[in-house]
Amino acid sequence: MNIVPPVILVVEDDPDLAQVLDDLLSLNGYAVVRAGSAPDAIAVLHQQAPALVLSDLNLSVGTGWEVYAFLRGQPHTHTLPFLLMSAYRPEIRDVADPFLCFMAKPFDPPALFACIQALLQQGSCTCAVPSTPHLPH
Rounded to an integer, what distance in angstroms lies between the CA atom of residue 100 and that of residue 52? Predict the structure, then answer.
């Protein structure tokens, strides 16, 4: 019996960090698809629905919020878990979305995996780091 690993779309424009995330996730049993920009991520999402999207907030082309907005606007992806990462916390306002989680960079790998597991298994964010669901003004 072949067990198909959950696919995580990693949206990160820093190639070194994208590789680190790819390696960490792969070593922990996840399949990884990578995109380096918001348009690339949206193109991937037109092709397939991963189990979770892990996106940087500030990308060289587009933002993680653009990927999030696209995801929520599609019937086949509107409840996909979305983990937004950033080195800083932007000015934001609350939004009620249990499938949205925020994690600060630099991140602690065990905390990252705890958050991913909570999002995938429970459909909610229980990250040990600051993680309030928000949208920009």
Answer: 10
